[in-house]
């Protein structure tokens, strides 16, 4: 997928426009690195035993890591992460990350859900892991050129 080189123009964007899809891979290595920089070292993010004791099927990705990675579908489209003026998700299901070299795959799609009068659009985002949505609702508000 190519990344936009200029901010999309408001006049060129219509409700329903599909953004290029994105496939993300999250590995245990990503979890360790994120834990280090975020200081979120909760054992459910690195220990299968702790995750299962907490009622989870296995080690799960940090919610904020997943949220940040998913936002890339919008920043790739705009070519400018600063164009995202609001981003919200409602967490629904965890992403279980196996202890292997493949990790977990999250499939991300997005479309323009609303075009507003102030040169902004609402981008509705869907992220799926194992065929199921991981967010109850996810959207970004983007200011266009």
UniProtKB/TrEMBL annotation:
Pfam annotation, one family: MaoC_dehydratas
UniProt cross-references to PANTHER family, sorted A to Z: (3R)-HYDROXYACYL-ACP DEHYDRATASE SUBUNIT HADB, 3-HYDROXYACYL-THIOESTER DEHYDRATASE HTDX-RELATED
Family according to the record: Belongs to the enoyl-CoA hydratase/isomerase family.
Database matches in Gene3D superfamilies: Hotdog Thioesterase
Protein name: Acyl dehydratase
Domain MaoC-like: 22-125
């Amino acid at each position: 997928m190519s990344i936009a080189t200029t901010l999309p123009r408001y006049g060129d964007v219509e409700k329903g426009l599909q953004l290029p899809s994105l496939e993300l891979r999250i590995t245990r290595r990503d979890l360790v690195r994120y834990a280090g920089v975020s200081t979120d070292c909760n054992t459910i993010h690195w220990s299968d035993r702790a995750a299962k004791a907490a009622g989870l099927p296995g080690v799960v990705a940090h919610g904020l890591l997943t949220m940040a990675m998913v936002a890339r579908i919008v920043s790739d489209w705009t070519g400018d992460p600063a164009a995202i003026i609001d981003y919200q998700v409602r967490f629904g299901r965890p992403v279980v990350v196996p202890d292997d070299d493949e990790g977990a795959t999250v499939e991300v799609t997005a479309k323009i859900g609303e075009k507003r009068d102030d040169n902004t659009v609402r981008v509705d985002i869907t992220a799926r892991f194992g065929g199921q949505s991981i967010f109850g609702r996810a959207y970004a508000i983007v200011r266009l050129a």
